[in-house]
């Protein structure tokens, strides 16, 4: 154990003043210090992508980033994706196209897809498949995740 | 009474919701981060298990740093081992201690547990716990464990055979001797981990006011978890409540009882606090139950017309170090023995199926249980026979698939109406085999190797207590109960003993109930996964919940419906036969006279004198269902390209024609099949837990143990038939596992077809690039 450092984490526009050990991962800080348990931890090896959040709008595996590295940056998690009661088109598309089953990997996939489409709205189908293969889902066989993300991409471009 | 009720079921609202692809009721919480998973709970004490770094040996010394709170087997006096029981098949009831007691039997076995105020602190302390083990020689491979002089895993099971099923039809030798041709396949399935994206987790909280403990955990069967833990700890079952909150996939891994949960409850009672454990991925991969690891030698005899006449099987299942609770380690070999005949018609059978202990992680059921392996063995056999007879693989299946129902198999299973031949033709037509063969020839001329492979199979689903009793199990699951209630405000609740964890069962059950009581599914709340608030039930596994909990829901809903009709007939002053229930109200057919469900519900509680002598007060009814079991069926076809330079396999197309009886929600059904096929493709090509010769696991991250990504799964084409089940009251058959059963056979048959010009045979799964290259190299050398 080592001494804790006081940092400010800005999650979905809200500031959280927390004291964390330098070794604390962003994923643990988001879940345990800031109480936002919608971000899930699947492997802690940076492989499954369940813990994907957006840091300054870039998809990041929060199990591979230290909380102290995210201080002062804008962190977006699943809890901030909807606009009040209005779901983000990506959330709606996952429901409409059955892009989730157990829901454990879902927050990671939603943040990954939103991050990439915000940056690259006209991404090709092949590149999108590349991006989506960065996260693991064990339930859906990816069929409906791909369908949902494509549908949401269309919807997001229309806005 | 039953007859009168079913007459109402065909009137009025009719079947409006069943069969529709409505959105899932589970989803709004899950897409907004409001799901509630076990690891989300806060605790005052955190556990870190200290696990054996070696596969076999005697524990000489356990040293903890000063001041550490550590628990070992020595502290657990009075806690019984987990010891599931079978009363048949020469089963040896070996026990699994909650923490290794003097002896370690596999790498990753829990030896001690550290308790601290945070997960980090517990991990830091665990790193400083020093364990000395006098190592002994382990045995990793089941066939080696069968050799004379092999290390003994359990003193009470000399020879390491824990369970052995043997059967033969009386005329077997005579039929075998009459064969025109015989073929042999030595099929080998390596070891898998079911790999739910949420690893296991448990949280046990002591309530000082009542002395009770609430265990929240990632289980597929909360009620039996409660019964089992109370037994092992010798505590009153009433003092334990088990909650399965949102569970992030299970696929069988979360139906077996882990010692870790027992220890959580023991510690919560001892410390009178809230204690928690969240398994990390490495723990899950090395110690979170494994599966498959099976060798099947299959010999088949055919008559001169390529009709299968006899089958002989020798099944060796590596069961790992212990026998999983509740199914016992008999689950794999015994299911292989019973279901080896698959969907083929023949009358002579001989089988020996053994479950063998080794110094490896304990095996447990995983989606498909044995059938992905036996289907692989059987479908490789059919293809080899086709080659021997100079027939197309499709033709030999046409000659042998069962097509008269009910059909009683050579092992005594009764197959209800299904569509084995029809789904075969449907898939074959979808693929256009002739066009593929032409393309295959052209590609070969250019040095590219395409192949086609198929698998036809059955999926036994929704079986009740009679099927489990036949296995001789001490614990006989099978039935399910649903308690359906409408409260005085008109709020509808169904409490189920089943425990879905991603399948969308809450939506499907709501659809079944909706059609009976005339309330839209979104107003029906299905409550699950809490032993304090649901009727006893067995949980979700073995493709059973839709059939059995669905059947129980239908029974309960018909009872509630009958009550509503009686109430409505009073309030509307109409004959019961004229009343329809729809849109949340009772209506008199052909009139505008109507009364809402909410009004009727209120009267059911507050105006009972009006219905005295006709119905009991309130609107709560229970339904229990215990069916004999049904069979879904499918034909899968894979088209692959094999790169002979690298051994890489790309699946260019995957077609499945499947029949799971009446489909309650087509969207959910397709999702189940997609997910199963993806896991089956992982099984066929990628996923393998590898032990080195010392019993150390080389695949302890998801970079080494590789579930497929979106890249490896091609677009999956599904084609449907709906042959209503004649033995399920909803006419639905289960389909949770079928997707995972076909792919190893279809994909590896396709690989063999692609490599046909090289004379290479692959009878091993997964067919990794290394294995394909090794087989090609061996041929190159020989040439």
Describe it:
The complex is a heterodimer of chains A (159) and B (783). The N and C termini of chain A lie far apart (49 Å). In chain A, a hairpin with a 2-residue loop joins strand 3 (52-55) and strand 4 (58-61). Chain A has a five-stranded mixed β-sheet, sandwiched between helices. Chain A is of the alpha+beta class and 159 residues long. Chain A contains five helices and five strands, in the order ββαβββαααα. The model of chain A has no long low-confidence stretch (mean pLDDT 97). In chain A, helix 2 runs antiparallel to helix 5 and helix 3 (106-119) runs parallel beside helix 5 (143-158). Chain B is an alpha+beta fold and 783 residues long. Chain B contains 21 helices and 29 strands. In chain B, strands 3-5-1-12-9-10-11 form a seven-stranded mixed β-sheet. In chain B, strand 27 (649-659), helix 18 (666-685) and strand 28 (716-721) form a beta-alpha-beta unit. Chain B is globular, with a radius of gyration of 27 Å. The N and C termini of chain B lie far apart (76 Å). Residues 1-14 of chain B have low confidence and may be disordered. The interface between A and B is large, with 56 and 56 residues.
């Amino acid at each position: 154990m080592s001494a804790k450092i006081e940092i400010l984490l800005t999650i979905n526009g809200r500031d959280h003043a927390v004291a964390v050990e330098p070794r604390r991962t962003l994923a643990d800080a988001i879940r345990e210090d800031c109480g936002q348990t919608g971000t899930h931890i699947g492997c802690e090896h940076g492989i499954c992508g369940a813990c994907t959040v957006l840091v300054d709008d870039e998809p990041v595996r929060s199990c591979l980033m230290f909380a102290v590295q995210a201080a002062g940056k804008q962190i977006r998690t699943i809890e901030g994706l909807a606009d009040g009661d209005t779901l983000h088109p990506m959330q709606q598309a996952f429901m409409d196209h059955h892009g989730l089953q157990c829901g454990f990997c879902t927050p990671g996939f939603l943040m990954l897809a939103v991050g990439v489409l915000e940056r690259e709205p006209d991404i090709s189908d092949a590149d999108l498949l590349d991006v989506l293969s960065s996260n693991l889902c064990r339930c859906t066989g990816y069929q409906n995740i791909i369908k949902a993300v494509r549908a949401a991409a269309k919807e997001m471009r229309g806005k | 009474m039953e007859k009168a009720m079913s007459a109402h079921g065909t009137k009025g609202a009719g079947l409006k919701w069943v069969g529709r692809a409505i959105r899932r009721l589970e989803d709004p919480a899950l897409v907004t981060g409001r799901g509630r998973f076990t690891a989300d709970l806060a605790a005052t004490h955190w556990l870190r298990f200290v696990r054996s770094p070696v596969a076999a040996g005697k524990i000489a010394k356990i040293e903890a740093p000063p001041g550490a709170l550590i628990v070992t087997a020595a502290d657990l006096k009075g806690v019984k081992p987990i010891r599931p029981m079978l009363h048949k098949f020469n089963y040896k009831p070996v026990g699994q201690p909650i923490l290794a007691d003097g002896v370690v039997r596999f790498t990753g076995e829990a030896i001690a547990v550290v308790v601290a105020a945070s997960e980090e602190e517990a991990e830091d302390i665990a790193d400083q716990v020093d364990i000395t083990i006098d190592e002994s020689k382990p045995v990793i491979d089941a066939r080696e464990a069968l050799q004379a002089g092999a290390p003994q895993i359990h003193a009470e099971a000399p020879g390491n055979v824990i369970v052995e099923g043997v059967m033969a039809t009386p005329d077997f030798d005579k039929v075998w001797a009459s064969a025109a041709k015989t073929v042999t396949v030595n099929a080998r399935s390596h070891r898998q981990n079911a790999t739910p994206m949420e690893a296991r987790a448990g949280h046990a909280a002591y309530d000082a006011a009542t002395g009770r403990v609430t265990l929240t955990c990632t289980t597929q069967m909360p009620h039996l978890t409660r019964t089992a833990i109370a037994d092992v700890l010798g505590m009153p079952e009433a003092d334990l409540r088990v909650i399965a909150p949102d569970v992030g996939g299970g696929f069988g891994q979360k139906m077996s009882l882990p010692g870790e949960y027992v220890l959580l409850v023991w510690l919560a009672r001892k410390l009178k606090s809230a204690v928690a454990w969240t398994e990390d991925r490495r723990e899950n991969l090395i110690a979170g139950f494994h599966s498959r690891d099976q060798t099947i030698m299959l010999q088949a005899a055919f008559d001169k017309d390529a009709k299968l006449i006899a089958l002989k099987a020798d099944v060796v299942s590596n069961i790992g170090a212990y026998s999983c609770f509740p199914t016992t380690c008999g689950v794999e070999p015994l299911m292989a023995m019973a279901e080896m005949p698959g969907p083929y018609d023949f009358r002579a059978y001989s089988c020996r199926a053994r479950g063998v202990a080794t110094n490896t992680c304990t095996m447990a059921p995983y989606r498909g249980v044995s059938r992905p392996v036996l289907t692989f063995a059987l479908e490789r056999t059919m293809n080899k026979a086709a080659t021997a007879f100079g027939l197309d693989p499709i033709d030999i299946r046409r000659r042998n698939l069962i097509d008269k129902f009910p059909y009683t198999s050579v092992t005594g299973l009764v197959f209800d109406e299904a569509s084995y031949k029809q789904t075969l033709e449907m898939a074959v037509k979808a693929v256009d085999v002739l066009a593929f063969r032409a393309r295959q020839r052209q590609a070969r001329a250019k040095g590219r190797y395409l192949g086609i492979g198929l698998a036809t199979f059955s999926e036994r689903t929704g079986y009740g207590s009679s099927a489990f009793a036949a296995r001789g199990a001490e614990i006989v699951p099978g039935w399910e109960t649903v308690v359906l209630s409408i409260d005085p405000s008109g709020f509808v609740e169904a409490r189920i003993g089943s425990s879905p964890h991603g399948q969308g069962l809450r939506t499907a059950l709501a659809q079944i109930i909706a059609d009976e009581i005339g309330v839209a599914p979104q107003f029906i709340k299905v409550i699950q996964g809490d032993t304090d608030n649901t009727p006893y039930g067995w949980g979700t596994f073995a493709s059973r919940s839709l059939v059995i909990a669905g059947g129980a829901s239908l029974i309960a809903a018909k009872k509630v419906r009958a009550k509503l009709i009686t109430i409505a007939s009073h309030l509307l002053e109409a004959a019961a036969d004229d009343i329809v229930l729809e849109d949340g109200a009772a209506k008199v057919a052909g009139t505008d006279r109507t009364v809402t469900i909410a009004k009727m519900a209120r009267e059911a509680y507050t105006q009972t004198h009006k219905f005295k002598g006709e119905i009991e007060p309130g609107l709560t009814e229970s339904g229990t269902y215990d069916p004999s079991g049904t069979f879904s069926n499918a034909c899968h076809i894979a088209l692959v390209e094999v790169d002979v330079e690298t051994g890489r396999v790309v699946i260019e197309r995957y077609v499945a024609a499947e029949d799971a009886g009446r489909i309650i929600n087509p969207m959910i059904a397709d999702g189940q099949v997609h997910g199963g096929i993806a896991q089956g493709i992982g099984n066929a090509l990628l996923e393998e837990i590898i032990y080195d010769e010392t019993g150390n696991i080389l695949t302890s991250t998801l970079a080494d143990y590789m579930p497929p990504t979106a890249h490896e799964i091609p677009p999956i084409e599904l084609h449907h038939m709906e042959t209503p089940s004649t033995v399920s009251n909803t006419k639905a058959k289960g389909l949770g596992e079928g997707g995972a059963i076909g792919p190893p056979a279809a994909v590896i048959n396709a690989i063999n077809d692609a490599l046909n010009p090289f004379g290479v045979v692959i009878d091993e799964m997964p067919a990794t690039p290394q294995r394909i290259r090794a087989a090609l190299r061996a041929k190159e050398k020989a040439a």
